[in-house]
Every structure is written in structure tokens, then in C-alpha cells.
Amino acid sequence: MSVKVLIPTPLQKFTKDQATIECSASNIQELIDALEANCPGIKARLCDEAGVPRRFLNFYVNSEDIRFLDNTATPLSDGDEVSIVPAVAGG
Q: Rounded to an integer, what distance in angstroms lies between the CA atom of residue 81 and that of residue 17?
């Protein structure tokens, strides 16, 4: 099962400057682990020491925020698109 992952610019140094990565995973947690296997060091930027996604990063599956789904247990299907979006603050 192939999932398309959209990587934000600040994290592309881990993906050899690729904005899109294809991974195989059945849920978000497996996807994070697959990203780490393919792009060493990226998991530390995505997750805290407990393995939980960092608060300032948002994960979307087909434009749906995983916080309103099943968080890291959110299932993935072939052809899904996962976006990793850094939170933006300002005023």
C-alpha cells in the first residue's frame, strides 16, 4: 500500500530535498517509522521523546486533521495523501 507524504520545506533536508515521499504504512505511527527508516533523523523532528507528534506539527490525511480522527492510529489506505504542516503563529 503506497501513501504519498507531503514534506514541509524545513524538513526536506532529511529527504534529500524531496517535497514528496512515497511510503508504505497502515497508520500514521507506521508512517512515521517508515519515514525514519528512509530518512534518518526525521522522526526526532516529528515526534517528542515519548514518540508523540510534536504540538507544533499537524498531520492531515486527505485534508482531515488526525487530531479529529484516531491520532497516530489513524488508518491509511492505498493512495492516501498525508500532509505534514508546521503550525504558523503570528500577529
A: 19
* Buried b / exposed e along 24-38 (16+ C-beta atoms within 10 A): ebebbbbbbebbbee
How many domains is the chain built from?
A: 1
In the block, residue with C-alpha cell 504542516: 85
- pTM, two decimal places: 0.92
Convert the pLDDT of each residue in 30-79 to its tens digit: 999 999 999 999 999 999 999 999 999 999 999 999 999 999 999 999 99
Q: What is the span of the domain harbouring residue 22?
A: 2-86
DSSP annotation of 73: G
The answer as to whether 66 is a domain residue is: yes
Looking at the domain assignment, is residue 91 inside a domain?
no
CATH number of the structural domain spanning residue 52: 3.10.20.30
